[in-house]
Write a structure and sequence with these properties.
Pfam families: Peptidase_S9 (PF00326). It comes from Pedobacter albus. With 953 residues, this protein is α+β, with helices and mostly antiparallel strands. Among the domains are: 243 residues, Neuraminidase (6 Propeller), CATH 2.120.10; 289 residues, 3-Layer(aba) Sandwich (Rossmann fold), CATH 3.40.50.1820. The chain is 16% helix and 33% strand. The strands form eleven sheets. Strands 5-6-7-8-9-10-11-12-13-14 form a ten-stranded antiparallel sheet, with no helix packed on it. An eight-stranded mixed sheet has the order 45-46-48-47-49-50-53-54, with helices on both faces. It starts with a helix and ends with a helix.
């Protein structure tokens, strides 16, 4: 009898629980506006405090500061902007800005009223607060913070012209004594690393008293290092905090813009501080027509012998032509016998001559004229890396018009230059990237070529000593000694492949991942497709840090950078790695103890883990953990092996109010091409075994590695949010796609259709109510799939490519380049051009199979799409319309490839769900789908929907 009562009790409890679950409402789009979640976080240097901001998608937020291993916490309202928090390096104070409230921001938009941030300074020991109004920026004073510097916003009445003074007051506030000192008209300021020196510039009205100053924060003594009728900016301390460099701008009557100089400050000692000023214009070795670049921050070499900076072209002022004086007529009576002089018409001024407005496109242009136009300002401001050796006053231009990219190596002994000028035109045509690589001796300026026509730049990685580098060529990693030129084979003798086995683009032997060098420059850390190898610089000593993980399908994904200012991987310290299993999608952390040669897996489970952080001066570790139904939550541990981790915070507090996904299944299936693949099938709310559900198939490329990722409710740029659909009773299927060259569309069919059938076979997916959606490349595949199969009842394609032939030679307007390189070597996977590959281009173009479409289509294509030309959507829409097939295209005017403006994102998200609810759930058809909306009625239509969809705050 007791057993029967227990069974009945369990049945009643289960029924009650199910009834309670069914009472929870689905997550509606209006709920997303008030959806509260965490963003941003900070860990104090001692690891005792952790902070994060949280609040709704739209509305006012709060900042929480909490003891990482205790329940003590403080909470503060911070307005509508998710400002970050900064801890002082001694972990005694926290500071953060408070912005205007959401209602104030909305009201200010209507009146153009300026809004200002406040600063709150909190003493963590006693929670005492100090506030400051109208704050622009703030900074604690380095590693030993006795001070906080606070710069205030300019007054509304301050002039705002280009040449007007930009300086404002900076308050130096002593954290211990509470005494403060004001510095007026400060343009910029920066503490050195220790925090005992403050460098700042003055930018005052009329440039009176302008200069660069240094203040000794212990004595209060301030020294003027340079004064001039000039402006100063870009203060850049060296890492040790013993020297800094900055820019100085002077007016020059020969040039349109200011002429800049480099100022180098070192050997800091009051009035005896060393200073060097270099502007290049007075140097005969400096290239004519060039000047110091204002957009590149100058910096010292480690040994303070050399200043590095950028140079670019200076624009000279137009020379004014003298106007011709009218000839004076001779006084007195005119000679009746003299012949009348012909009237002389004055020469038209240069600026008055009408000129054609044109562009000349030449087949020999390395970059398309559209690319040159799009990148014009970048080209104009391009910074050519240069150096100035102080002792011998020697200038060296390191980069030039051919070798535009130059990277100064660690220790500043050498620089590495990349010259693709000989291959740029062809690379822009077919996407295959080659470059010549040069080594530059920074003492002599001598250049020598290391490699000719190296594919993809060889993935060169320079060691911390600046004398060695690893590089990749034809499936093998090598090392090269810059001093001797000697090379060594690093991976050629290892019985593993260092060619990325999942990269199916048209590239030659794509490389696996290099994790750089050990901090002592003795070892390169290089990964094959699964294991991580520690390889000596000469290639003779090889150790597998992960021992044959391939057998388990596990792999090292990357290294956690947990040490401040690290240079390379310090193997004398504990190191941490993200680890992942490609088969079951489990993830976790690996641990390499100091001085050891074997990575231990600390844990791997069905969660997704955020970046691991370590307290700079403490033993505390913090990381986030989440999965498909649990939003990211922070955990903290004081153990090297991360044991005993304690939960620090919670997230998405409103989630419990709504119906949520019931789980996820990983499906194994075989594509039509014979490849073993996987698909993630997310279960709808209140899933009941044996019942089938309407399903959205969401596609892009390979998606199952994100199996355990949390889908944060939001208004997406493409309309689809997985969390909202799952909460509204849909299952969601995300299959992997493996591509064959010259068959991108057919590859999608070969992978997606079997995935859908495998999902239907589980009984979860309703075979009669399956839809498909994708955006961009996913939009292309969606628009193609419905020409090849009728398995989908409805489709929604965002910004799709539809005609591979016309698209191939169109412009990618966001960069100005052609799509040809993208087609041949990147996502398109079609090569070469259609004239030699006609069958493949037509076979994989939706437009050429349009007559077979039987699936209703919701099409999104914006008129300013800079990635997939608007004509692609128009061509597909008009073709379907001509064939009288059900299609609606939505265009948001002025929007690019994804929807950026919040009202538009909200609108499309609602329309897509309305569409799928009608097609898959039998709900009434929205009028904009069933009847359309005329241009005259559009305003009334939008007003009605705006009222209906307004978030209920």
């Amino acid at each position: 009898m007791k057993k029967l009562n227990f069974v009945l009790l369990m049945l009643v409890a289960a029924f009650a629980q199910n009834a309670l679950a069914q009472q929870k409402p689905a997550l509606a789009w209006k709920d997303v506006s008030k959806w509260s979640y965490n963003r941003g976080s900070a860990l104090s240097a001692d690891g005792q405090w952790f902070a994060w901001s949280s609040g709704p998608t739209e509305g006012d937020l709060k900042m929480t500061i909490r003891k990482t291993m205790d329940t003590l916490h403080y909470t503060y309202p911070i307005g509508a902007t998710p400002n970050s928090l900064t801890f002082s390096k001694d972990s005694k104070y926290a500071a953060f800005k408070i912005s205007a409230k959401d209602a104030e921001v909305k009201a200010a938009r209507k009146t153009n009223k300026p809004l200002y941030d406040k600063l709150t300074l909190v003493s963590l020991a006693d929670k005492k607060e100090t506030s400051f109004d109208r704050v622009r920026t703030f900074s604690f004073s380095g590693d030993s913070p006795s001070w906080i510097a606070i710069q205030f916003a300019a007054l509304e009445t301050a002039p705002k012209g280009k040449d007007d003074a930009k300086g404002t007051d900076v308050l130096l506030y002593n954290l211990a004594t509470k005494k403060s000192f004001n510095l007026g008209n400060v343009g910029e300021y920066a503490f050195n690393k220790v925090g005992d020196k403050l460098a700042y510039t003055v930018d005052a009205n009329g440039q009176n008293g302008n200069g660069v100053f240094i203040r000794d924060m212990k004595t209060g003594l301030t020294t003027a290092l340079d004064n001039d009728k000039a402006s100063y900016k870009s203060i850049n301390w060296n890492e040790d905090g013993t020297a800094f460099a900055l820019l100085k701008a002077n007016k020059n009557e020969k040039y349109k813009d200011d002429v800049y100089s480099i100022i180098g400050i070192n050997k800091i000692n009051g009035d005896l501080t060393a200073k060097v000023i270099y502007n290049g214009i007075d140097d005969s070795t400096f290239p004519k027509g060039m000047g110091i670049n204002t957009n590149a921050g100058p910096y010292w070499s480690d040994d303070q012998s050399t200043l590095f900076f950028g140079i670019n072209t200076l624009d000279k002022k137009d020379e004014k032509k003298e106007e011709k004086k009218d000839e004076k007529k001779p006084e007195g009576k005119a000679d009746s016998t003299a012949k009348a002089k012909p009237e002389v018409k004055p020469e038209p001024k240069k600026e008055d001559i009408e000129k054609p407005d044109m562009i000349i496109w030449n087949w020999q242009d390395k970059r398309l004229q559209s690319a040159q136009q799009t990148q014009e300002m970048r080209d104009k401001n391009f910074s050519y890396t240069s150096a100035y050796r102080v002792a011998d006053k020697k200038f060296t231009q390191l980069a030039d018009s051919n070798m535009r990219t130059v990277m100064v190596a660690p220790q500043q002994l050498y620089a590495v230059g990349y010259d693709n000028s000989k291959y740029e035109l062809m690379g822009n045509l077919d996407g295959q990237s080659y470059t010549d690589i040069y080594l530059i001796d920074l003492k002599t300026g001598a250049k020598k070529r290391l490699f000719e026509k190296l594919y993809n730049g060889g993935r060169l990685s320079v060691a911390p000593n600046g004398k060695l580098a690893s590089y990749y060529n034809d499936g093998v990693f090598y090392s090269i000694d810059f001093e001797t030129g000697k090379t060594a084979n690093l991976t050629g003798n290892i019985k593993a492949s260092f060619i990325d086995e999942l990269d199916d683009h048209n590239v030659s032997k794509p490389a696996t991942q290099s994790l750089g060098w050990s901090s002592d420059s003795k070892y390169a850390l290089i990964k094959d497709n699964y294991d991580l190898w520690k390889i000596s610089a000469d290639g003779k000593n090889v150790v597998a840090l992960s021992d044959n993980w391939k057998a388990k399908k596990s792999e090292v994904m990357g290294r956690m950078r947990i040490y401040t200012d690290e240079k390379g991987t310090d193997l004398s310290k504990d190191q941490y790695f993200s680890v992942f299993n490609a088969k079951d999608k489990k993830a976790g952390y690996g641990y390499l103890p100091a001085g050891k040669n074997k990575i231990e897996i600390l844990f791997m489970d069905d969660n997704s883990y955020g970046a691991l952080a370590k307290a700079e001066n403490g033993k505390t570790f913090v990381y986030t953990k989440s999965n498909f139904e649990q939003s990211p939550i922070a955990f903290a541990s004081n153990a090297n092996n991360l044991s005993g981790a304690k939960q620090v915070n919670t997230n998405t507090p409103d989630q419990a109010k709504y119906a949520w996904t019931s789980g996820v299944k990983l499906i194994d299936y075989v594509s039509s091409n014979g490849d073993s693949l996987q698909a993630a099938l997310y279960l709808p709310v209140n899933y009941v075994a044996g019942k089938s559900y309407p399903t959205i198939t969401y596609i892009y490329e390979r998606l199952t590695d994100g199996l355990n990722n949390y889908a944060m409710p939001s208004f997406p740029g493409g309309g689809f949010n997985k969390a909202v659909y799952l909460s509204n009773g849909y299952a969601v299927l995300e299959p992997d796609i493996k591509y064959k060259l010259n068959d991108p569309g057919m590859s999608a069919v070969a992978c997606v259709v079997p995935a859908v059938k495998a999902a239907i076979a589980t009984g979860i997916v309703d075979a009669k109510n399956v839809a498909i959606h994708g955006h961009s490349w996913g939009g292309y595949q969606t628009s193609f799939l419905i020409t090849q199969t009728n398995i989908f009842k409805a489709a929604a394609a965002g910004a799709p490519l539809t005609n591979m032939i016309s698209m191939y030679s169109l412009i990618y307007w966001n960069s100005g380049g052609t799509n040809q390189a993208i087609f041949e070597a990147s996502q398109g996977r079609l090569t070469p051009g259609y004239w030699d590959n006609w069958d493949a281009f037509t076979r994989n173009s939706p437009i050429y199979h349009i007559k077979k479409v039987q699936t209703p289509l919701l099409l999104l294509h914006n008129d300013k799409d800079g990635a997939v030309d608007f004509t692609q959507g128009i061509e597909y829409y008009n073709g379907l319309r001509r064939l009288n097939k059900p299609v609606v295209m939505i265009t948001y005017r002025g929007e690019n490839h994804g929807i950026a403006k919040l009202p538009n994102r909200k609108d499309y998200a609602v329309r897509m769900l309305e569409y799928f609810d009608y097609m898959l759930k039998g709900k009434p058809a929205p009028e904009w789908w069933s009847k359309g909306v005329s241009r005259l009625d559009m305003e009334k239509h939008l007003e009605a929907r705006a009222f209906e969809e307004a978030p209920q705050n």
